[in-house]
Here is the input.
Amino acid sequence: MNKRKRQDNALYARTRKWAYERDEGLCVLCGAMATEVHHIEFRSHGGLSNLNNLACLCRDCHTKAHGSDAKQIREILKERNKGITWQNEE
Here is the structure.
């Protein structure tokens, strides 16, 4: 594992908890109980685990966020997180 991946994994271990708190444990798309934390800009595309790049999603919405609606969902999530600030974010 390269250094960037190790550092981002350590960051994700902290920020995913903050994302659940911020989103109150609910899917930000449909309001169901969130089961997963989604990277809005995929890590494989250079996205990091900063809190503004994370969104809590239920399993169904997470599947859609990686499917044919991925681009549209990414834009919705980016817009949603644009004005959000969080006390724990670095």
About this structure: Residues 26 and 33 are 5 Å apart (CA to CA). The longest strand covers residues 36-39.
